[in-house]
Amino acid sequence: MTTRSALGLQTRVADVHEAEVRERRTVLVPGMRIALLVLANVIGLLAFVWPFLLPSVARRVAEDHQGDGPWIVAALGAILLALLFLELGRGGLGPKTVALLGVLGATMVALRLPGFVAGFSALFIVVLVAGNSLGPGFGFLLGCIGMFASGIFVGGLGPWLPFEMVAVGWVGAGAGLLPHGRSWRTRIAWLAAFGFASGYLYGLVMELWFWPFLTDGSALAWDPGGGALMNVRHYLAFYVVDGLTWDTFRAVGNVVLVIAIGRPVLAALDRAARRMQLHVG
């Protein structure tokens, strides 16, 4: 065998090996990504519900989540970093996905700077349209990252932060699960309806981060010794008094922004995804 033939054979073997590696990554990376997203959602759900399951422990070591809040942020942060590194390591598409996350996350920070009008902030429109255009996984990631960044620059770092991250991430994921329909009118109608519903659902979920620590015995507090039905009534009464009005501003504001600017922003994101060949979900 000549030297040239040997080199050609080595090149072909290397090409075959590289192709096999790419094929394995094509199968492995999406599975790892889904597993990390599921883990982040499970941690977020447990963060909300564990004080109800272990009330004595919650009162002793985690009053208003002062004890466990930093650990929840650390766990979510580690998962988000792993997801970002995973995207960067995909080659080609990965850096573009991370760059888009960064741009949209920075937009959320900028929109939070003016503050809230009662419970409304324009940052929710970013999560709604991005999730709807780029999928539930992207929407969840953006919600978590955007709220973490805005918490650092605007809202401060407190025990409420991991709960905001997860709750806004769920808004983005929900927007990504909506049907697009056959026309822009249908798509915008679905997104506006979800924006209205999520304005209240976000508040219903967020009130839970501190409600189990209200134990004053009133009809608004959580009673560890009471039944589930009684505590549901307590919570709904608490929500009506504490959050319903504020959340109405958010619900209506979401609808107004979706109708006003939803179509052009969605079209821009759809076009960017096609041009950059982003296959996100």
Question: Which key terms come to mind for this protein?
Answer:
mainly alpha
How would a textbook summarize the main sheet?
Answer: none
Large-scale geometry: globular
Structural Rg:
22 Å
Number of strands: 0
> Cα distance, first to last residue?
50 Å
Structural class by sheet pairing and helices: mainly alpha
What is the helix tally? 10
What order do the SSEs take from the amino end to the carboxyl end, as H and E?
A: HHHHHHHHHH
Give a topology summary.
Blueprint: H1 3-53, H2 55-61, H3 69-88, H4 93-112, H5 123-134, H6 136-155, H7 161-176, H8 184-206, H9 228-242, H10 244-275
Helix pairs in contact: 1-2, 1-3, 1-7, 3-4, 4-5, 4-6, 5-6, 5-7, 5-10, 6-7, 7-8, 8-10
Verbal overview:
This protein has 281 residues and is mainly α. The chain has one domain. The protein contains ten helices and no strands. The relative contact order is 0.12.
Can you give me a brief rundown of this structure?
With 281 residues, the protein is mainly alpha-helical. The protein is built from ten helices and no strands.
